[in-house]
Amino acid sequence: MSDQKLFLAIFLGSHDNPRAQAWWALPEDERHAREREGIAAWKAWVEEHKADIVELGGPLGKTKSIGPNGVKDTSNALTGFTVVRAASIEDATKLFEGHPHFTKFPGDAVEVMPVLPIPPG
């Protein structure tokens, strides 16, 4: 059995972030050019780390909250996710250093956390 563990990487971004505000203030053609550059960089990141990626995941859309009082529209800073395999959380976080989410796009951060086993019942 491998000593590799699963880690969930959550991509965070806020419209209140000054970098995001500057991004959306760009002329449309310039923003689209930067998007193409960012997507190319993201694909290169995927290619570089494909052996470590368990689930590429993807962008996240509009959010609904479901609780004891029903369903409502809500928002949060979650913008995407990826699942990776690594020996430790330190190794998993290293995969995301310099990631295009915040070097090419105006993302705030990538948070990495272990996926824990379901306790026996």
What does this structure look like?
The protein is an alpha+beta fold. The protein is 33% helix and 33% strand. The protein has one domain: 2-Layer Sandwich (Alpha-Beta Plaits), CATH 3.30.70. The protein has four helices and six strands; from the N terminus they run βααββββααβ. The protein has a four-stranded antiparallel β-sheet. The chain has a two-stranded antiparallel ribbon with strand order 3-4. β3 (63-67) and β4 form a beta hairpin. It starts with a strand and ends in a 7-residue tail after the last strand. The model has no long low-confidence stretch (mean pLDDT 95). This is YCII-related domain-containing protein.
What's a quick, concise take on this entry?
The chain is α+β, with helices and mostly antiparallel strands. It has helices spanning 18-25, 28-49, 89-94, 100-103; strands spanning 5-12, 53-59, 63-67, 70-74, 78-86, 109-114. The chain has a single domain (5-114), classed as Dimeric alpha+beta barrel (Alpha-Beta Plaits, 2-Layer Sandwich), CATH 3.30.70.1060.
